[in-house]
Amino acid sequence: MKKITAPLNEKAIADLKAGDRVLINGTLIVARDAAHKRGLNVELKDQVLFYAGPTPGRGGKLVGSIGPTTSSRMDPFTIPLLEKGLKGMIGKGGRSREIRDAIRKHKAVYFVATGGAAALLGKTVKHAEVIAYPELGPEAVLKLEVLDFPAVVAYDIYGGDVFER
Which CATH number applies to 2-164: 3.10.450.590, 3.30.200.20, 2.40.40.10, 3.20.130.10? Predict the structure, then answer.
């Protein structure tokens, strides 16, 4: 397992290959369909975007379970985000050829997280805050601080594709 820190830097991205298992520490930006349709008006340079919608937290926590959503639904919005400097995305499932090519062109990386493990992924969240669209409730844009968030590199900057293995 490789440990990486988000936001990402060029060296961390260059060291990742499709199929690598990683533990992500640091900051993730969380957004899914409703926020993407409105436009993500947050700083994305070098950030990792997690396609998810958490359940409400208990006991004063902002989030509870948080699992990946199907990433291909965000494909129509992805290229402009990569052009703004987005360096990583986390979701589930494959992406279109156009998005895979854009990930390689912009030297970004796409991770997959295990669907059905939302309760376990929620335990990696150490801090959460709403940073945009609070009226969207669970689809608001969040900033999370995570510790040892598990994922697998699905697409790397070299064109590697875990789904083709």
Answer: 3.20.130.10
